[in-house]
Structure formats: structure tokens, C-alpha cells
Amino acid sequence: MENVNYNHLYYFHVVAESGSLGAAARKLSVTKPTISTQVRQLEDFLETPLFDRRGGRLRLNEAGRAAYRHTRVMFDAGRALLRHFRGEEAVDTATLRVGVSTLVGRSLASSFFVPLLDLGETHVQIVSGDATDLRQALQSRKLDMLLVDQVPTNPEELGVVCELLARRGMVAVTGAEGPEGESLTSALQRLPLFHYLPDAAERWEVDHFLRTQRIQPRLAGETDDVATLVELAATGKCVAFVPETVAEPHVATGELRKLGHLPKVHQHVYAMFAHREVTDIVEKAVSLLRRVEDS
Questions:
Q1: Phi, psi (5° rounding) for residue 197?
Q2: Section 264-273 average pLDDT
Q3: Same domain, 193 and 280
Q4: β-bridge pairing 122-129 and 193-196
Q5: Considering 52, 85, 118, which residue would you say is the last residue of a domain?
Q6: Residue span of the structural domain in which 34 resides
Q7: CB neighbours of 13 closer than 8 A, spacing ≥ 6?
Q8: Beta carbons of 144 and 284 less than 8 angstroms apart
Q9: For residue 227, is pLDDT > 80?
Q10: Strands 57-60, 94-101: parallel, antiparallel or unpaired by DSSP?
Q11: How does pLDDT run across 80-114, given as a tens digit for each residue?
């Protein structure tokens, strides 16, 4: 039986993780031609290309992603072997690192994340932050998956996959005190609007709704934090548009008053993950989160 060259596998693995020959060359302290030769020899041995080569860029194809899943297991096992003989604590569980954009994190009830507890022997890490920073962390392999409210216009060029997980209806709210039966139009004539930041997907949808209703509200301010919108609206000094799942508990306790639903206006929640990171654990996590919306 012919044996695979493990040097070839390691060079391929580093390129797959680094995302380019240049980055891999710097990590390995070798030249780009050296790495390119090693990868080509592995492709010749397997009798299939592992990368799509376009415009000087390398991107894992389907065969490459399958190979990467195997090499990731191999080299993770190698690190575990070293930990064992160094007397370091063994880590038996897999880790799923999920980045949640600030707007999405504040908009989802904690119950949305409960299915991740069904991943079995998996340690889940959830971090929040700016969507741009999270995408950079995803591309540098510091995160396995993102939950965001909007997707890039060029996901293929960025090497990411985006899948819609949930659609949340939006409602207009203000403080509990106010004229009984007040309409949204009347409320926005009396009170200013505290809005989303200009680059938020929710901002575009709400603005489109307001234009169709011929409503031109006074703008009190802007934020990317749904919790801040809720707190400001509860003062009764402004109107805000928030996901209905966020508003409901505050309406039930009398903190907020609902002014109406926004037809055809939704907050979207997408799962985003790198092409090369479509591992079994990511696929299972996406499947579990998708069921939240289906149930």
C-alpha cells in the first residue's frame, strides 16, 4: 500500500488554515514556491485538485474541504498527543466558537441558543462584538461561526457561506404612558424617533416602511444596541422599532406600549462560516439553530 507523504499533508494544512501561500510561507519560514510544490505533489498523489486557483488566489474546493477535515483531525490529535506526554490536562470535548454581532445578540432571546446545548460533547463559546471585527476573526480562524443580521455582498470572494436562520417581526414601541389607542403616525408627530445606525439592515427596512407611509419623523439619535432602544423608548420620550421577541416581555410588564406591527419588515439572522470550516460540529449547530425558527 502506497503511503501518503505527511510533509505534503502538513504544508497543505497550513495553507488551508492560513488562506494563502504568502501567509503559509511566513508561518513555515519557507518560500512560496516550496509550499506550492508540496501542495501540487499532494494533489498529484490524490489525483485531484484541492484548491480553486483564480486570479492568483487559492480557495479550497470540495475535495480540499474534505481533505482539510481529515488533516484537522490528524493535527489536533498530534497536539493532544503532546499534551498527554507533557502532563497537561486533556481536553476531550470539541469547542464551537460562535461570534454574535451586537445587534443580533441583543435581539435574540436566550432560548434561541438553547439548542446548542444539545451538541453533546461540545464546549460552546459565545462572544459578541462588531460584525466587521467578527468577520475578521472568522477569516483568521479565531471563530468557527457567526450569527449576524446582514451578509456581505461578495460572500464567495470572502470564502464564506451564509445561511438564513430566522426572521423576526418588528414593532414600534414607546413608554407605557401616553394617549390611549394612539397610532404610530400620531406618536411620531408627538415624539422623535431613536433609530438604528445608518449601516444597519434594520435601518434600511424601517426607512422604507416610513417612506411608504409618508411619515417623516424627527430623529433623536442612533444606536446599534437594541437594549438601548428599549430603555430609551420606555422613558416615553421617543419611539423605537425593535424585534417583537424583544418587545413582548417589556410590554407584558407594562414598561412599553406597542404602537403597531411593521408589515413586511423583519430582522434577519444569518449563520456565517468559512468554506474551509464546514466541519461536522458547525453543520450540526446550524441544523439545530434552524429548528428554532421551524418550531
A1: -65, 155
A2: 83
A3: no
A4: unpaired
A5: 85
A6: 6-85
A7: 68, 71, 72, 74, 75
A8: no
A9: yes
A10: unpaired
A11: 788 778 877 655 567 788 888 877 776 665 666 77
